[in-house]
Amino acid sequence: MRAVVYKGPFEVAVEQVEDPRIQHPNDVIVRVTSTAICGSDLHMYEGRTAAEPGIVFGHENLGVIEQTGDGVTTLSRGDRVVMPFNVACGFCKNCTAGFTGFCLTVNPGFAGGAYGYVAMGPYVGGQAEYVRVPYADFNCLKLSEGTEKETDYVLLADIFPTGYHGNELADVRPGESVAVYGGGPVGLMAAYSAMLRGASKVFVVDRVTERLQKAEEIGAIPVDFTQGNPVEQIREQTAGQGTDKGIDAVGYQAQARGEDREEPATVLNSLVETVRPTGALGVPGLYVPRDPGGPDEQAKRGMLMVAIGRLFEKGLRMGTGQCNVKRYNRQLRDLIAEGRAQPSFVVSHELPLDQAPTAYEKFDKRIEGYTKVILHPHA
Known about the structure:
The protein contains 13 helices and 15 strands. By secondary structure, the protein is α/β, with parallel strands linked by helices.
């Protein structure tokens, strides 16, 4: 089958790789009809992880079941399904508590597994014509038949639940004000989710014009950090108090304001100043224990200069960690099905799989309006 294969920093190729096969009675094989390029994929694409050449990318996958293992009981050939990026067993201590992003079974020695991602287990990615889904009864979410709303539903694999998760981590409640740092797909989903939860005022901080325009289109207040300190801009619009809650949708590759260099802790520190005393921060943005491309030796070891004194002084709470997609995806699916949510507003391009190398390059450079790309392997 054809698949998107990592070749080295800033290079992917569409190549022939081995077809997936049933390896366990609980497996299914899915013919992938939609698979998204994620900002997390760009960390590997840029060589900012320990990913080795040869890995097949793709953890945001939707398709139709082609084959089922003998132990699968709730799924059938022909079912249309979307899979959480988390590979989870469903029965370990963390899974039964709802923490499927930290499954203790699927990736021995590490809490959590994922498709096509470095250090997240032996699960081949779905930017390919087919993908194997283990523990399929648990990991597959059934969808309605047909292709209606497919571009919305594929976002249930990661970014819509992850944006919602940022709100859960920050405990966003109706009537509260929220500052979201990062206007990429996850940041826009966090802002959108905040409004679904009843937030009174939502700010989105970024510097990319297309992202800020998208934020304004959904009713958020865009804040361009190249035009001045975002903390001050937000305080001016909140009677000097700051917001009730804040969400970091950027992570460790944050850019220093006014400079063409990275400053990994700048978003965290900006949020500490943006959020009012006794508020809360949600951090779904990715941070890693090792970053080969970090701007200094501490950053390369995942050690950042965070204003913990101010965090403590203000009595702020902070929640972190990757999204437990299963905790949210059924409810979010039903919001989409009933027309109450349409997350596909973030999608800028839908392309055949063969155009993946160009799509990666343009998405990485944030050019030509590339905000979120969906690949169609069988187009």
